[in-house]
Specification:
single chain, 79 residues, mainly alpha
Amino acid sequence: MAQRSIEILVGRLITDEAFRIAFLENRIDTLRGFIESGHELTDLEIAALNHTRADLWVLVADQIDPRLQKASFHTRSQS
C-alpha cells in the first residue's frame, strides 16, 4: 500500500504546483497532511523524501507538458 502512496505523492509533486510549493516550504507539515488524508508512508520513505534534493521536484516539473500541470498563482517565498 505504501508504494501506491509514494506514486501518488511523486505525481502530485511534479504536477501540482501548490502542493509542490507547500512541500518545499514545509516538508514535515505537507507529509503529515498527506498521511492524514489517508495515505500511508513508512518512516524510511519519509526520511528518503526529506533527503531528496528540493530542486529535483522543480526540475522534473519543468519538464512536464503544461497541459498535465495543475497551476497555482501562489509564488514561493524568496528566502
